[in-house]
Specification:
388 residues; alpha/beta; binds 4'-deoxy-4'-aminopyridoxal-5'-phosphate; binds glutamine
Length: 388
């Protein structure tokens, strides 16, 4: 038989699925794959359930239901002062995962270069490669994850088509600073390149840090596609409702990619998410506040156990250095050991690198109820003490 697609033949199953399966098998508390253990707002869930029964279950429009597109535009105005055209400037997708692929399809030709920032979310690189483009990787270094400005500037070439920016960033929890964003914007303008901004954690940012969309910087609105995710904003990760906003010419191309990927997204979920995005400001502040308290429980507990935790200003995740624990193995071995022996799952940070990676960091998700986090810490403590 002829070989099938070579790139996919070489691609493994995502680390999130691998670790969740191991976690389930061992009855572990899953601090690996990032998903909350409480559901999002009951009124939104009820609205989605009600919407199934009122006879609007056929294909929604290609770029999304008008009420959701209007809600995305209104939220962009309310939170960031962005002027988004609700009709031509928004495309609803089946999750941010689809949105990322659709945006990359909209912009990249074979032979183009895309700048990706490492550590990087696992779908970015395979999609860039599938499109026949070349990735230029720019690496942030722990513990500070500062933007290496000279390295970034040197990564641009006449072939650079776009930069993919994830802020707040998975797995580092980094929120890019106004200064860093200004530097990036300058390079994009200088090299006439686009930005694809994965901002799925836009509302999961912990004061005093503040999320600033790159799109709000001077000159950026015309060259930026900005991605959000209802899964993250409403703690309903299984819903897979994403949205891309941007200039009409780029959204129309994103929509053409979307029509070949999924074409549309479940109408009841779109309607419920539209209600969610109109929630008052205190919902959004409350979401971040609760998550920040959970971050602090896990951070304090991990430090007490001897991990060196790195600061996290946003997202669901803490990165922890395992070096002081003197574990005889790397991050992958460590995550397997705590999942199978301690009953707590985590993700090896080396999974977020394309090339040679640091081997001493693991990622813990703190989007779990306080008691669950405390139980996970107790399990880790027992394991360290040789009791499990
Ligand atoms: N981007 C990043 C950085 C993520 O962490 C995730 C994880 N969920 C996604 C995109 C995908 O979002 P969605 O579930 O809406 O597809
Ligand atoms: N974004 C989630 C994480 O980083 C996982 C999503 C997935 O499993 N595809 O943990």
């Amino acid at each position: 038989m002829k070989p099938a697609n070579t790139l996919l033949e070489q691609t493994g199953t995502t680390i999130f699925t691998v670790m969740s399966a191991l976690s389930l098998q061992h009855g572990a508390i899953n601090l690996g794959q990032g998903f909350p253990d409480t559901e999002g707002p009951a009124d939104i869930v009820q609205a989605a359930a009600d919407a199934l029964r009122d006879h609007r279950n056929q294909y929604p429009p290609l770029t999304g239901l008008p009420e959701l597109k209007s809600a995305v535009a209104a939220a962009s105005q309310r939170f960031y002062g962005l002027e988004i055209d609700p009709a031509a400037g928004v495309c609803v997708t089946s999750g941010a995962t689809e949105a990322i692929t659709a945006c990359l399809m909209a912009l990249l030709n074979p032979g183009d270069e895309a700048i990706l920032i490492e550590p990087l979310y696992d779908t970015y690189l395979p999609v860039v490669k599938m499109l026949g483009a070349t990735a230029r990787l720019v690496r942030l270094e722990p513990p500070g994850w500062e933007l290496p400005r000279a390295v970034l500037a040197a990564a641009f070439s006449p072939k650079t088509k776009l930069l993919l920016l994830n802020s707040p960033m998975n797995p580092t929890g980094k929120v890019f600073t106004p200064d860093e964003l200004g530097f990036i914007a300058g390079l994009l303008t200088q090299h006439d390149a686009y930005a694809v901004c994965d901002e799925v954690y836009e509302h999961l940012v912990f004061p005093p840090a503040r999320h600033i969309p790159l799109m709000t910087l001077p000159g950026m609105a015309a060259r930026t596609l900005r991605i959000g995710s209802a899964g993250k904003t409403f703690s309903l990760t299984g819903w897979k409702v994403g949205y891309v906003s941007g200039p009409a010419n780029l959204i129309s191309l994103t929509a053409k990619a979307h029509q070949n990927l999924t074409f549309t997204t479940a109408p009841n979920l779109q309607r419920a998410v539209a209600l969610g995005l109109a929630k008052p400001d205190d919902y959004f502040a409350g979401l971040a506040g609760a998550l920040m308290a959970q971050r602090d429980i896990l951070d304090t507990g991990l430090k007490r156990l001897g991990f060196i935790t790195l600061p996290t200003d946003g997202s669901y995740f803490i990165t922890a250095d395992i070096t002081p624990l003197s574990f005889p193995g790397d991050d992958v071995d460590f995550c397997r050991a705590i999942t199978t022996q301690a009953g707590v799952a985590a993700i090896p940070v080396s999974a977020f690198y394309a090339g040679a990676a640091p081997r001493n960091y693991v990622r813990f998700a703190f989007c779990k109820q306080p008691d669950v986090l405390r139980e996970a810490l107790a399990r880790l403590e027992n394991w360290r003490a040789g009791k499990s």
